[in-house]
Amino acid sequence: MNPIEIRPGIHWVGVNDRTTDLFEGLWPLPHGVSYNAYLVVGTKAALIDSVKAPFGEELLRKIARILPPDRLDYLVVNHMEPDHSGALPLLRRVAPRAEVLATKAALPMLDRFYGIRDGVRAVADGDKLDLGGKVLSFHPIPFVHWPETMATFEESEGVLFPCDAFGGFRALDGALFADAVDFAHYEDEVLRYFSNIVGMQSAAVLRAIERLRDLRIEVVAPSHGLVWRKEVSRIVELYARWARMEGDPGVTIVYGSMYGETLRLAEAVAHGVREAGVPVRVLDAARVHVSFLLRDAWRWRGLILGSPTYDTGPFPPVEHLVRLLERKRLKNRVVGLFGSQAWAGGALRKLGEKVAELGWDLVGEVGFLGAPTAEDLARGRELGREVAARVAAAGATQSVAGGPQGRKT
Ligand code: FEO
C-alpha cells in the first residue's frame, strides 16, 4: 500500500508483514500483521513509531514520497518493542539530526537495544511539541504494552497514536480505515491480538482508556491494524470490554483426547450447550494452536475443559492452556470439567484445584473410566446445559447492568 493521508498533513507510512510466521517468535500470523508508522508534517516533521527492522527500507521509500527522510526533525518512540523501534538505527543514519523523543523509562532501553544515547529527549505526561501547524502532546500509558509505552496525540486534527492499544493482528487487506472494510473480517484477529499480547495488562488498558478520556479524539491510529476515523468508540469499547474480562454469552470447549473417548464426551457436552441455546465452539488442544484457544477463552464466559489423565495430571496441551490463562490473569469464567482415566485419576483433581485457585466458578465435572457409558454421555450433556444456563444468566445480568456494550454497532 502507498502512503495514505489520514488527515491533512498526517500520513500513514506503515508496512504489511505477510512473511513473519510467529509474532514475538510465539504467536502464529496466518493473516500477517501491519506495523503502522505515521508522518506528521507541519513546519517541522515528526515520525511516530517505526517498523520492524527488515521493513526499514520500505518505510524510507514511503517517507520519501512525502518528504526527503533526512528532513525528519523528530522520531517519536511510543514503544520500544522492536516491531515498532527496529528501524531506528537506519533512521538515525538517514536522518542524523532528528531528535528521538520517548518517555524517561524508554531511554535506557534505547541504549540497550540500539546503543542510542545522543540526540535523545525524555518527554513527560502532557508535554507538548509544536511542529508549526501541528502540535503533539505525550501521554504515558505504562504497560500497554511495556512499562515505557506512551500515546502521542496530534491536537489540531485530534489524532491519537496509541501504539499497541486498539490494534490487532491481520495485515491490511487493501484498506486502512475500519469504516472501509467489513470489520467482522478483522475482529477475530483483533481479539486474538488483544488476548495474546496485551490481555495480561488489562488493568493497564483500562487505566489508559481512563487517562485518555479527556482528549478530543477524532481518529484512533494504532500501530497495528485498522485506523478508526468513524465510530472511534467502537474499538475503545471493545478493548474496554475485553479488559474487563466479562466474556460474551457463549462456551468454549477445549479438550484433549488420545483415543477418542474424551472427544466423545466433548461432543455430548457441546450438544448440551447448544440445547440451551448458547453458542459453542469445540477445540482440540493438541491440534489448534494455543493462541486461538486463548482468544476463544477470552471471548466467551463459559469454558469447559476436557482431559484424560496423562502422567498423573491433565493432558499437556490442556494444562498449557490453563497455565497461559493463569499468566494472562483471565477472570470471571464459568467452568465445567470432564475427563477420563484408564486406571488412576489426577487430571480432573488437578484442574479443579487450579480452577479454585483462579477464582473461576466451577459448575460441575464429569469423570469416567476407560470409555464413556451412555450414562456418562448423558451427564456430559447435562454439564453442557448447566454451564450454558449459568453463562446465559450472567449475560442477562450484564445486560440489565448496562453491558455488554462492545458489539452495539
Ligand atoms: Fe506491537 Fe508491544 O509491540
For this entry, give a set of tags.
409 residues, alpha/beta, Metallo-beta-lactamase, Chain A, Rossmann fold, seven-stranded mixed beta sheet, five-stranded mixed beta sheet, 35% helix, elongated, disordered C terminus, binds MU-OXO-diiron
Shape: elongated
Q: How far is the N terminus from the C terminus?
A: 28 Å
Instruction: State the name of the first-level CATH class of the largest domain.
Output: Alpha Beta
**Could you give the count of β-strands?**
21
CATH superfamily heading of the largest domain: Ribonuclease Z/Hydroxyacylglutathione hydrolase-like
The portion of residues assigned to helices is: 25-40%
- Adjacency order of strands in the biggest sheet: 1-2-7-8-9-10-11
State the domain count: 2
Radius of gyration, taken over Cα atoms and rounded to an integer in Å: 24 Å
Predict the CATH topology of the largest domain.
Metallo-beta-lactamase, Chain A
Tell me the fraction of residues in β-strands, as a range: 15-25%
How many H/I helical runs? Answer: 12
Largest sheet: 7 strands, mixed
- Mean pLDDT comes to 95
* Estimated structural class: alpha/beta
CATH architecture of the largest domain: 4-Layer Sandwich
Low-confidence stretches: 401-409
| Unique bound compounds | MU-OXO-diiron
